[in-house]
Design a protein that fits this description.
mainly alpha, about 70 residues
Amino acid sequence: MPHLFKKTVAPKGKLDFAGLKNACQKIKNRSSKIDFQTNNFLKVVFVKSYDKKELEKAVKKLRSYQNGKK
């Protein structure tokens, strides 16, 4: 899964929110067991490839998106 994340979301090493959503959706579509709305999923996909600060930013953005904010 990390290769999909790297290719889709961060080709230049930075998180892109639109890409983050797309990657989450693609991975979710492949396996109904994965819930991209949980921190556990984010940890599985992102922690190995990106530092903690970037991960925390992604979590905050994804949470605010889920709560209906932009």
